[in-house]
Amino acid sequence: MRIPIDRESKEPLYVQVRDALRTLIIDGTLAPGSELPASRILARTLDVNRGTVTLAYDELVTLGYLYRHVGRGTFVSARIPDAPKKDSPAPTRQRLRWEEKLAFDPHALRDPILVEVARLAAQPGVVSFAGGHPDPVLFPLDDFRKALNAALKEDGRKLLGYGGNRGSPEFVELLRRILIDRGIAAQPDELLVVNGSQQGIDLVARLLVGPGDTVVVEDPSYHGALAVFRALGARLVGVPVDEEGLDVGALERLLERERPKLLYTMPSFQNPTGVRLSLARRKKLVALAARHDLPILEDDFKGDMGYEGEELPPLRALAEGRDVIYAGTFSKMLFPGIRLGWLVAPAPLVQRLSLAKANVDLSSSLIFQAAMLRFAKGTRLARHAERVRAEYRKRRDALLAALEAEMPRGTTWTRPVGGFSLTVRVPVDAAELLPRAAERGVVYSPGRVFSVSGDANILRLSFGGLRVEQVKEGVKRLAMAVKEARVAPLRAAAAPV
């Protein structure tokens, strides 16, 4: 057999190895049960880094083409996902072929590299920049426990039953007060309580986006939103992001030739870059969207997590409610586990969104809404917000200082003014660098997970869940991996096996 490697291709080496092996498996050249060469041997034969082969093997295991036998090696699976129909056993009454009935395969929407990142992050001693999550150490457990117990004591029987699908009136009123502080005046019929901003994105997409519709997104963008749009069969078009956020000039040029159904954007502390859309661009974006009748889904998932500069008005506030759907959440400032978020939209759209939500889960948790209502009374929420912003800023500052001190020349990064993450541009393929970095004891999220254009040279570092000492050590390890990759590059060559 032969595995061709194209030295000039923009496709990462591990992808080339993975796809070549998959082809050999599907066409029967590698028969079920066949043992593959050890990763070290195949890497030497192909003249590539061992991590390249390891990553290709890992993805094929995840996709079901290979399996590992501890202590023996890696083998071709007995049942191949893409095996020709004639080789497949006929369905029986006792066993339905569910894979043939799926409208789409959820595995196709979860990049296998995310599975590999999670596996590597779980290894002992690894510093993981991969998860964009708040630090559980900072959760205000005692105060929230008191609020939860008070809610149960006062009205537990009612709160543990079903609720209205729009949210409890008292909690909606709390959200209205919070939104007024952000410059958004929303009437109760313009608010919908949802199970986190992810559900909000999903509900909006279900109503507005169909197969083949064009959705404009920032490039790079939040991978969870990209997966939602792809699941609906949308065509994604990316607009670049720079230090001022979304390039509105590039969007304007795009709208001269495209008629998108929706624009999805994160103006405040964009994920994964951490940059903030400037006020001038916010105003221009709102005017541009109005001129082109382009609905905007504004994801303000970290709008209360700014570390410097004045707070900028949301797009919804600047648009005075026109054409902007606003999504928010308590997940980053407080607890991801309570799954409380909200949508603000024109009342007729909220009515349809609430019906769509009712079809999915009937309603959001009444007990958590009641507990949040009590937790937010007085100054507890404001004091907690001030505390966590100060702590996360220390971690952000430590990360920026460590990157400046450790990373080799030719490496650049974004400077977040809020949120939990930034992106680093490295002089090698970030996905292929991952196994080498993991050997050094550090992992991250490769940028291809977030990129619409397939940018292979960026990676995301999320610092929210790491202490300052871990941040510094993780950057040292990452810098060593990048320097090693530059000295001994991940080479490409055509070689027989």
Total of DSSP H or I helical runs spanning 4+ residues: 17
- What is the second-level CATH architecture of the largest domain? 3-Layer(aba) Sandwich
Rg, Å, rounded: 24 Å
Shape, per Cα inertia axes:
globular
The name CATH uses for the topology of the largest domain is Aspartate Aminotransferase, domain 2
Which strand order spans the largest sheet, edge to edge or round the barrel? 5-12-11-10-9-6-7-8
Query: Which band does the percent of strand residues land in?
Result: 5-15%
Distance between the termini: 6 Å
Write down the overall mean pLDDT: 90
The number of strands is 18
Strand-pairing-aware structural class: alpha/beta
Low-confidence stretches: 90-94, 490-497
Could you name the CATH class of the largest domain? Alpha Beta
Describe this structure in words.
The protein is α/β, with parallel strands linked by helices and 497 residues long. It has 3 domains: 2-86, Orthogonal Bundle (Arc Repressor Mutant, subunit A); 114-132 and 382-487, Alpha-Beta Complex (Aspartate Aminotransferase, domain 1); 141-377, 3-Layer(aba) Sandwich (Aspartate Aminotransferase, domain 2), CATH 3.40.640. Helix content is 43%, strand content 14%. The protein has helices spanning 13-26, 39-46, 50-63, 106-109, 112-121, 141-159, 169-181, 196-208, 223-231, 248-255, 279-291, 315-318, 347-361, 366-375, 380-406, 430-440, 468-487; strands spanning 2-3, 66-69, 73-76, 127-128, 191-194, 214-219, 235-242, 245-246, 262-265, 296-299, 324-329, 341-344, 412-413, 421-425, 442-443, 445-446, 458-462, 495-496. A hairpin with a 3-residue loop joins strand 2 and strand 3 (73-76). Helix 3 (50-63) packs across helix 5, helix 15 packs parallel to helix 17 (468-487) and helix 16 crosses helix 17 (468-487). Residues 90-94 and 490-497 have low confidence and may be disordered.
